[in-house]
Design brief:
The chain is mainly α. It has two domains: 118 residues, no CATH class; 31 residues, no CATH class. Helix 1 runs antiparallel to helix 3 and helix 4 runs antiparallel to helix 5.
């Protein structure tokens, strides 16, 4: 018979911390503007006629403006949505991605393209965020609740290989001297060259 008085684990309460949307928007503007400047410089360098160095701003400067606007809208909308909903989840990325994609479509001035760019960008970014926000995949459940120090210690020890395994693959010598190395070295020299080496005592 099941215990009717069994203690059930209480769900861990998550405390939401407000984000500084203005600061995030400024960072997004700087990052987007830098990326836009690089793309504008590449476009300017591929021009068929010489337009000069100022062509980065005069000829292809709209690229810088577009990247700056997209970066600002995305980062500001993401944190603003999180603050309004008081949740950090994929929906914040979905909203921010749609607005950022719609910002790209504003250049065309057509509603179908504005909605299409927003939907496409939203689907791509939401899928990327939902699958872990990394090309290597999401974090494993056992390290999600660890703090930064415990996580790094776990990753360091998890990737540590036994010395015997490393020696078996790399081999002895070249600075790698496991226990018993000198005895095995003398035996190999005796078998190969017929020379017996007697170690010199440090106390002699």
């Amino acid at each position: 018979m099941a215990n009717q008085h069994s203690v059930q684990a209480e769900p861990k309460e998550h405390h939401f911390h407000q984000h500084d949307a203005i600061k995030s928007g400024i960072k997004g503007a700087l990052f987007g503007g830098s990326a836009g400047f690089i793309f504008s410089a590449v476009q300017n360098s591929l021009a068929k006629r010489n337009v000069g160095a100022w062509g980065v701003f005069s000829r292809t400067g709209s690229t810088i403006g577009m990247f700056t606007a997209v970066g600002t809208v995305y980062t500001f909308s993401k944190d603003a949505s999180a603050n309004l909903r008081e949740k950090d989840d994929t929906l914040n990325v979905t909203i921010a991605s749609f607005l950022a994609g719609a910002t790209i479509g504003l250049r065309t001035g057509r509603i179908p393209q504005i909605l299409g760019f927003g939907a496409a960008f939203s689907i791509i970014m939401s899928t990327f965020e939902f699958t872990g926000g990394s090309l290597r995949g999401g974090a494993r459940p056992e390290i999600l609740d660890m703090d930064e120090y415990e996580r790094k210690e776990y990753l360091r020890t998890n990737r540590r290989r036994p010395i015997t395994e490393a020696i078996s693959e790399v081999g002895e010598g070249r600075g790698i001297k496991p226990p018993g190395y000198e005895e095995r070295r003398r035996e190999r020299l005796k078998e190969k060259y017929g020379v017996e080496i007697n170690p010199v005592s440090a106390n002699a």
